[in-house]
Design goal:
The chain is mainly α. A two-stranded antiparallel sheet has the order 1-2. Helix 12 packs parallel to helix 15. The chain has 16 helices and two strands. The radius of gyration is 21 Å and the shape is globular. It folds into two domains: about 220 residues, no CATH class; about 90 residues, no CATH class. The longest helix is centred in the N-terminal third of the chain and has 30 residues. Helices cover about 70% and strands about 0% of the residues.
């Protein structure tokens, strides 16, 4: 057994055991996995491909609504379910709840992937800050549009079917849904970045004009990569819908100021364009966020703002980039010290 295999086996075992060893922190650990998922998916385009998006939260929010519509619409009229003035009380059986979850989560991912595939050619005509601002506008516009659609509950949002499980068991279920999705995503990306497709999107990041001159169909690669990331973000959004029970468009689903920014900060903290960077950054950022919330409360946003400034000014390559510079041997990089001293 190689060291890497042993490491992954230990991490998987720790992932499975975590909610049972630390039951009081199950919700914290579930949110941690959410951060890991959105950070890894953002890095697919922002780090590996060089297209920094500020609107990936669009797929998260769309995944929430799609998962909810599927779970509810399988058995009840969605418009009547979301009507605040209705007098009818809908009862959901355990079978209906879990069927809605089983179909709604992957269905949300597929719908978000389709959305990315359709709108990709439009947005990938933009580059640099124009792409970032364009995607941010997409997320903001989506939140405003959904908040005005009464069939989706309008500004009041949607209340999900109640889980038949005890709240403690429901937390464990949500944790394993996030963790399972995160492990699958990490394993997929570990393979994906080693393929010719991964090399192609790296070439786009390094010099898109040269990549096109070499015969790489850049628009196709960019659109497919964005669509794949959207599938995982959409599924994470659908899981969040079941976790939160009730959500609304602007503050929860299309939360551009919170999760939309946090996923970018996680990647910048850990290191763009690396496999482990987004994971490490998500862990560090989530712990920092929770510690500041518990101990300085009102000053949390000040602390988070200072953290962002410190990252951007002093650690532009993130933690992984810093470690590569000071400890290159850890990454298999050989440094000719003899030549440097002679």
């Amino acid at each position: 057994m190689t060291k890497n295999t042993l490491l992954y086996a230990v991490l998987v075992a720790a992932t499975v055991a975590a909610p049972f060893l630390f039951p009081s922190y199950t919700a914290f650990l579930a949110t941690l996995w959410l951060f890991i998922i959105v950070a890894l998916t953002w890095d697919m385009t922002g780090g590996q491909m060089g297209y920094n998006s500020l609107g990936n939260i669009f797929f998260y929010g769309t995944g929430m609504y799609t998962g909810a519509v599927i779970a509810i619409g399988l058995y009840f009229p969605v418009g009547e379910w979301t009507d605040a003035s209705r007098s009818e009380v809908f009862s959901v059986t355990a079978s209906q709840y879990y069927t809605g979850m089983i179909i709604g989560i992957p269905g949300a991912g597929l719908f978000c992937g389709l959305c990315a595939f359709i709108i990709g050619p439009l947005f990938f005509g933009l580059r640099g800050p124009y792409f970032a601002i364009g995607t941010l506008g997409l997320a903001i516009a989506a939140g405003e549009i959904v908040s005005n659609i009464e069939w989706l509950g309008g500004g009041q949002g949607i209340s999900m079917p109640h889980s038949p499980l005890h709240p403690d068991f429901e937390k464990v279920l949500i944790y394993f849904l996030y963790a399972g999705l995160g492990v699958v995503l990490f394993g997929f990306l570990r393979w994906f970045y080693s393929t010719r497709f991964g090399a192609a999107i790296n070439a786009i990041r390094d010099d898109e004009e040269k990549a096109e001159a070499m015969g790489i169909h850049t628009l196709r690669y960019k659109t497919i990569t964005w669509a794949i990331s959207a599938v995982f973000v959409g599924m994470a959004g659908a899981i969040s819908a079941f976790q939160l029970i009730h959500f609304e468009p602007l503050e929860t689903a299309y939360q551009t100021i919170n999760l939309g920014i946090f996923m970018v900060v996680c990647v910048l903290l850990g290191g763009k364009g690396t496999l482990w960077g987004p994971v490490i950054g998500a862990v560090l950022f989530h712990v920092f966020k929770e510690v500041t919330w518990n101990y300085i409360l009102g000053g949390q946003w000040v602390a988070l703002g200072l953290l962002i400034v410190i990252i951007v000014v002093f650690f532009q390559d993130g933690l992984m980039g810093y470690l590569k510079h000071v400890r290159p041997g850890w990454f298999g990089i050989k440094v000719d010290t003899k030549g440097a001293t002679s």
